[in-house]
Design a protein that fits this description.
Belongs to the TRAFAC class TrmE-Era-EngA-EngB-Septin-like GTPase superfamily. Septin GTPase family. The chain is of the alpha/beta class and about 400 residues long. Helices cover about 45% and strands about 15% of the residues. It has 2 domains: about 1-205 and about 240-330, Rossmann fold, CATH 3.40.50; about 330-398. The chain is elongated, with a radius of gyration of 33 Å. About 25% of the residues are buried. The chain binds guanosine-5'-triphosphate (GTP) and magnesium ion (MG). Guanosine-5'-triphosphate (GTP) binds near residues 71 and 72.
Length: about 400
């Protein structure tokens, strides 16, 4: 795993506009935020991160790594500080190697799932220390799952991976490289994906809407606007993404980050071209706190309950000692079942070998005792003989 620290950014995305109370809670809740990207190889995950850094998390370098983007082969963490007015947020962005390249893509999600679980585990162990000082918290607040822009639907691998992620973290599906689809193709594709998500019961993160504000008539101009914004975000899901690191001058003479085509520019930060701004707003502005709180209250709590074996009363028997390694727990997962069976076999063999060794040792002791007894008998008979000799000598002396 590699990490890179990035210099201080300044560009405004509006985090300082969070209402005061939310701002305060975000500050208290650890003042940091972790996003992860994952999905098939070559879908623009690394490019998306670089685009996010260029537009939001500004720093001195034009790019984190110079030269063309290479295939990501290891989990890569980039840290930055997003600073606005007096609001400061530490942002960790986790890039992951793409999957789907292999003939057998079975369990290609494993590294991602392990990473998410390991962060929960590490946090839980720190919490259990006497002084409960959390030094290291990389629990993932949002996972962006990149979907290939095929226009058809979701692959079984996508469905399986999304299901696995959604039980552990806030899942946000995004359609990658949407500049390769026409508007018509994109809207049909979005519809199909939403249908699959619904029928497969994949839990995706949805911005909460407080309808009670509208129904009890307490809506102010501000919160009706917030509700409207949340509705727009929900309608746009899964977000259509385009990533780029190049700047061009558009027909209004403004420098924009875009992808250039013979027929014109696809502008990253233009709402009529793609949903980049909406996604960024959800992540770093409007739903930042929802993402942090649901990670803490839903996903981390679920993990903790499972680890402590008190997720529900019937499950009491499955209670697992806290010092059990994290991964042993998830035995419903076939990978862990295999691992568990292999371990059981190894353990049985070890016990057998130990028993054999013990029996041999026991036999050796018996043999040794017989030998010593024989020696003792020998010595005793020698002593007896000597005593007789002494007796005879004494008699002769008289
Ligand atoms: N058309 C188009 N191409 C893109 C987009 N984003 C990235 N690309 C290109 O797609 C290629 C792969 O991009 P990467 O960012 O390396 O993809 P990745 O998902 O990180 O790939 P792995 O690290 O192998 O998983 C590069 O040539 C990018 O320039 C996009 O939005 N549209
Ligand atoms: Mg990559």
């Amino acid at each position: 795993m590699s990490t890179a620290a990035v210099a201080v950014p300044t560009n405004s995305v509006g985090i300082s506009n969070l209402p005061n109370q939310r701002y305060k809670i975000v500050n208290e809740k650890g003042d940091h935020f972790t996003i992860m990207v994952c999905g098939e190889s070559g879908l623009g995950k690394t490019t998306f991160i670089n685009t996010l850094f260029q537009t939001t998390l500004k720093h001195q370098e034009p790019r984190r790594n110079n030269g063309p983007i290479k295939k990501t082969i290891d989990i890569d963490i980039t840290r930055a500080v997003l600073e606005e007015k007096n609001f400061k947020l530490r942002v960790n962005v986790i890039d992951t190697p793409g999957f789907g390249d292999n003939v057998n893509n079975n369990k290609s999600w494993q590294r991602i799932i392990d990473f998410i679980d390991d962060q929960h585990d590490s946090y839980m162990r720190q919490e259990q220390q006497p002084f409960r000082k959390i030094k290291f918290d990389l629990r993932v607040h949002a996972v962006l799952y990149f979907i290939k822009p095929t226009g058809h639907g979701l692959k079984p691998l996508d469905i399986e991976t999304m299901k696995k992620i959604s039980t552990r973290a806030n899942l946000i599906p995004v359609i990658a490289k949407t500049d390769t689809l026409t508007q018509q193709e994109l809207s049909t594709f979005k519809l199909r994906i939403r249908q699959v998500i619904e029928t497969q019961e994949i839990r995706i993160f949805t911005p909460p809407i407080d309808e009670s504000i509208l129904s009890n008539g307490s809506a102010t101009e501000d919160n009706s606007a917030a509700i409207e914004h949340a509705r727009q975000l929900i309608e746009s899901m899964p977000f259509a993404i385009v990533g780029s690191e190049e700047r061009f001058t558009n027909d209004k003479g403004v420098q924009v980050i875009a992808r250039k085509y013979p027929w014109g520019l696809v502008e990253i930060e233009n709402d009529s071209h793609c949903d980049f701004r909406k996604l960024r707003s959800l992540l770093l502005r409007t739903n930042l706190l929802d993402l942090i709180l649901s990670t803490e209250e839903v996903h981390y709590e679920a993990y903790r309950a499972l680890r402590l074996g008190n997720s529900n009363e019937e499950n009491k028997d499955s209670s697992i000692p806290i010092n059990t390694p994290a991964r042993k727990l998830l035995s419903s997962n076939p990978h862990f079942k295999e691992e568990e069976n292999a371990l059981k076999k190894y353990f049985t063999e070890q016990v057998k070998a130990e028993e054999q060794r013990f029996r041999q040792w026991e036999q050796n002791i018996v043999n040794e005792r017989v030998r010593l007894n024989n020696d003792l008998e020998d010595i005793q008979s020698k002593v007896k003989k000597l005593e007789e000799q002494v007796k005879n000598l004494q008699l002769k002396k008289r």
